[in-house]
Write a structure and sequence with these properties.
This protein is an alpha+beta fold. Helices cover 17% and strands 27% of the residues. The chain has a 6-stranded antiparallel sheet with strand order 3-4-8-7-6-5. It starts with a helix and ends with a strand. The structure holds zinc ion. Residues 65, 67-68, 70, 114, 116-117, 119 line the site of zinc ion (ZN).
Length: 150
């Protein structure tokens, strides 16, 4: 299980190696994504709180990167944070997510990205529920829910 110490370590000393890499030009991403998906994932945008389609969805399944389809999070680690963005306590796998120090807007935060294609997903904060204490605050537009069929 990842903790805040691991997150800081990745952001400062380097990220885990992904299983594969997907690299495309901006024009290719633009052609593939909706304008809102492009703005958030490729231009580090943020959706308005409580606006995202996946915000209050708790169906079983995997949350995949909207850009490259890599599984990022799992419905079992989603929780209701009340912030208005889908929130998770862990990535689906340790090497699914990439972390970078973000000093924009006069704040020091840790940005989270897809480790496969570098899509911007959101940020991670050290105020999540125990035992990990992590809160991954993720834009709905950066993911698709792959629902489990029972
Ligand atoms: Zn991706």
């Amino acid at each position: 299980m990842l903790t805040w110490k691991n997150v800081i370590d990745f952001a400062v000393n380097g990220n885990p190696t992904p299983e594969r890499r997907v690299e495309k030009s901006d024009a290719e991403w633009y052609a593939q994504l909706t304008p809102e998906q492009y703005r958030i994932t490729r231009e580090k945008g943020t959706e308005r709180p409580h606006s995202g389609a996946l915000c209050s969805v708790y169906d079983s399944g995997k949350y995949n990167c909207v850009c490259c389809g890599t599984p990022l999070f799992d419905s079992t680690i989603k929780f209701s944070s009340g912030t208005g963005w889908p929130s998770f306590t862990q990535p689906i796998k340790e090497n699914a997510i990439k972390y970078e120090r973000d000093t924009s807007y006069g704040m020091v935060r840790v940005e989270v990205m897809c480790n496969t294609c570098d899509a911007h997903l959101g940020h991670v904060f050290p105020d999540g529920p125990e035992p990990s204490g992590l809160r991954y605050c993720i834009n709905s537009e950066s993911m698709t829910l792959d629902k489990e069929t029972a």
